[in-house]
Design goal:
heterodimer, A: 112 residues, four-stranded antiparallel β-sheet, B: 116 residues, mainly beta, seven-stranded mixed β-sheet, 0% helix, 52% strand, globular
């Protein structure tokens, strides 16, 4: 069965420190992987995606993600966290079966 | 450029009633997706419409249905409402998704449905 997992419900980071939000996947065929961010009372906003090509994908607001096929992971990273990065982050993946699956979300809290 | 719009913003219904939610995609987008975001359950895929046809549906009962109009706007209908249908319903749009979700999706602000 296809799945996307975000093993951490919450990640706490100090402002200025690097952040990582983890995601692992299990989808059939070549995976299409995405990261979205949701601010309170707002819809989701697209951050970045991996379809094919370079394993390191750069996205909006200084975020990047590394696709690792052997570890079936697609972790979201940022070199220096901002308080304004505090939000709910969703990893999602789709495969050849035409389903799109979202992880349960990770709440990122960046403290000054 | 206008984003994805949804109406209404909030709804309160009683158990057993029926509800219709509406979504207008970004201009040029032909695919519309519906998701349910219930507390503690994350984002659950409901339905995908493209070019007026239902392309795929998630693991939801048949009382969840919808349609896509020639102008690519979409409706989500939920019949015989149950308490557990209380959730934020999100609509998203993207360019034609012939490659099975290879395009990023743009989300509307959602409709908050409360069933009492």
């Amino acid at each position: 069965a296809q799945s996307v997992a975000q093993p951490e419900d919450q990640v706490n980071v100090a402002e200025g420190n690097p952040l990582t939000v983890k995601c692992t996947y299990s989808v059939s065929g070549n995976p299409y992987l995405f990261w979205y961010v949701q601010y309170p009372n707002r819809g989701l906003q697209f951050l970045l995606k991996y379809i094919t090509g370079d394993n390191l994908v750069k996205g909006s607001y200084g975020f990047e993600a590394e696709f690792n096929k052997s570890q079936t992971s697609f972790h979201l990273k940022k070199p220096s966290a901002l308080v304004s990065d505090s939000a709910l982050y969703f990893c999602s993946g789709g495969g050849s079966q035409g389903n799109l699956i979202f992880g349960k979300g990770t709440k990122l809290s960046v403290k000054p | 450029e206008a984003g994805v719009t949804q109406s209404p913003t909030h709804l309160i219904k009683t158990r057993g009633q029926q509800v219709t939610l509406r979504c207008s995609p970004i201009s040029g987008h032909t695919s519309v997706y519906w998701y349910q975001q219930a507390l503690g359950l994350g984002l659950q895929f409901l339905l995908w419409y493209d070019e007026g046809e239902e392309r795929n549906r998630g693991n939801f009962p048949p009382r969840f249905s919808g349609r896509q109009f020639p102008n690519y706007s979409s409706e989500l209908n939920v019949n015989a409402l149950e308490l557990e249908d209380s959730a934020l319903y999100l609509c998203a749009s993207s360019f034609e998704s012939g490659q099975a979700f290879s395009y990023e999706q743009y989300f509307g602000p959602g409709t908050r449905l409360t069933v009492t």
